[in-house]
Design a protein that fits this description.
This protein has 411 residues and is α/β, with parallel strands linked by helices. It starts with a strand and ends in a 5-residue tail after the last helix. An eight-stranded mixed sheet has the order 4-5-2-1-7-8-9-10, with helices on both faces. The chain contains 16 helices and 16 strands. Helix 9 links the parallel strand 11 and strand 12. The radius of gyration is 22 Å and the shape is globular. It folds into two domains: 224 residues, Rossmann fold, CATH 3.40.50; 164 residues, Rossmann fold (3-Layer(aba) Sandwich).
Length: 411
């Protein structure tokens, strides 16, 4: 196949003007894949239907403000609505998403768009829905596992059965870490169907800034030690452990960057621990400002109970900032160089985090050493392998179709 490959990316985890950081890791990879050359892409990103757009409806209102279509960095994105009732009908979610997604895909085909391969991210419900869409339009598809879809959702018997069926029908499944691959194998997926393609880091977006200058630009007017926590303020990220760890170290400050329902709880904790003067909260930040946040910090802290491939560790490292994290998911595959940071040993609790922070802050690696270690995680080999996987899927499907057309009809 000498022409550009025509890729349809299907995932509910994709940013929009309403939620600019929602699933940004998928958008970033797709943008780099398109920039590499040899591929053109269109995105179908289903969002739950909700009737009200006001701020008073919180996250549901933000979702409802998602446009029907958007052009993001030259990539056309559609956001079809599907019915999704919170806490109700989880087993039916893939079917409802597939129905909405299929209408959008059929509309694309009627408009003259061509599709060679369906590229689905997140195994359930997205991947299962994409499998049905690909079957209906007669195209091969590749799945990508991200973390919670394997570590949490696939532990449920109903979704697991559907996930296995989707993987069996696919041209292969991508995991972002070896740990996720091992988890899938443990769930009965054949090892030869899984390809590990980690995420990378872009040094043009993430590079060191002068620490004190970065602090001034963010209004962090202190010369004491600062750590930063970047991610949604939700229970599975365990931001309360990060706050407890900071409270145990005199003079240490923490900056939380992200939004979520845990923020009021964290603010109350800070007051109860009498460390509110050492805690700052920022909402979501664009990439350019995140570079300032990483550069302003002496370390990044990641307290998650589960992860796929935590991009924040590489983003911080590219800015010269080491990390402390629990050894979950892909973390051991990233923090395999002491220049990049320290994994918590022993109990996964606030004291374990505090001990690791003390160790790192007492003898931090140089910024140059951290940046050099981060540079090993470039995008080029990952993108080459990913494009190769998509091309093989398209070529195999074309060969199969040609053979079927040549076979004589049954008498």
């Amino acid at each position: 196949m000498s022409r550009d490959l025509r890729l349809l990316t299907f995932t509910s985890l994709f940013p929009s003007v309403a939620r600019p950081r929602h699933g940004i890791f998928i958008e970033s990879r797709l943008q780099r894949l398109v920039q590499r050359g040899g591929i053109c892409a269109h995105v179908i990103a289903p969002v739950p239907w909700f009737p009200f757009t006001g701020d008073g409806w919180g996250e549901y209102g933000r979702i409802a403000r998602t446009p029907q279509r958007e052009l993001r960095s030259g990539i056309h994105v559609q956001y079809p609505r599907y019915v999704s009732l919170p806490y109700v009908g989880f087993s039916a979610k893939a079917g409802l998403m597939a129905r909405a997604g299929l209408r959008a895909v059929q509309s694309l085909l009627r408009e003259g768009e061509a599709i060679d391969v369906v590229d689905a991210h997140y195994l359930y419900p997205d991947g299962v829905a994409a499998a049905e869409i690909a079957r209906r339009i007669g195209r091969p598809f590749v799945l990508s596992a991200r973390g919670t879809d394997v570590n949490l959702i696939a532990q449920m018997p109903g979704p697991l059965k559907q996930i296995r069926q989707a993987i069996e029908a696919s041209s292969g499944v991508i995991t972002v870490s070896a740990a996720l691959k091992n988890s899938l194998v443990g769930l009965g997926v054949a090892e030869d169907r899984i390809t590990v393609l980690r995420n990378g880091v872009d040094p043009s977006l993430f590079s060191p800034e002068d620490r004190m200058s970065a602090r001034r630009q963010l209004g962090l007017l202190t010369d004491e030690k600062i750590i930063v926590s970047v991610g949604n303020l939700v229970p599975e990220k365990r931001p309360e452990l990060a706050l407890e760890a900071v409270a145990r170290i005199e003079g240490l400050h923490i900056v939380f960057i992200g939004r979520g329902r845990e923020r009021p709880h964290l603010e109350g904790m800070a007051r109860n621990l009498s460390v509110e003067h050492r805690v700052r909260f920022f909402d979501e930040m664009p990439q350019a400002e995140l570079r300032l946040a990483y550069s302003a910090a002496d370390a990044l802290i990641l307290a998650s109970e589960r992860e796929g491939w935590p991009n924040v560790l590489l983003e911080a490292a590219a800015c010269g900032t080491p990390s402390v994290a629990f050894p979950v998911g892909g973390v051991p595959e990233i923090l395999n160089d002491l220049a990049l940071g320290i994994m918590v040993r022993g109990a996964h609790d606030a004291e374990g985090l505090a001990d690791a922070l003390r160790q790192l802050l007492a003898d931090p690696p140089s910024r140059d050493a951290v940046c050099a270690a981060a540079a090993k995680f470039g995008w080029a080999p990952v993108l080459d392998a990913q494009l190769g996987l998509y091309r093989r899927a398209a070529e195999s499907a074309a060969e199969l179709s040609a053979r079927q057309n040549l076979e004589p009809a049954e008498a």
